[in-house]
Request: fold
Amino acid sequence: MLSPSGWLSATGAGCAAAMSAVLAKLLSSQLPMLVQALGYGGVVLLNVLMWSLYVRSLKTLSSLQATVVNFASNFLISGFAGYLCFSENLSSQWFFGAFLIVTGIVLISEAGDTTEKCKTN
Reply:
């Protein structure tokens, strides 16, 4: 099973990356220059947070587990944010893909646990 702190850090990294993308998409050239500057500062801060959380997750998870959880949370949050903020469609194919990603996370997590048990024996 994934380490709770590693899992939360990897998930948080994916969420921060998704929110950074959403914020960047919300910024337009029609906004005042100060608002744009603050918005892009927020994008940079969210990316710094994402990398910080990702590196923290690597302390307790394998690089494969951390990367997959980070990617999956980014994908899922980006999809739902697109639906909520930008009225993008989430088709049945998207939900099937999300299901496959979550299934893959479970399989990779279990494989990582098996590998760690073999190393300790």
About this structure: The two ends are 18 Å apart (CA to CA).
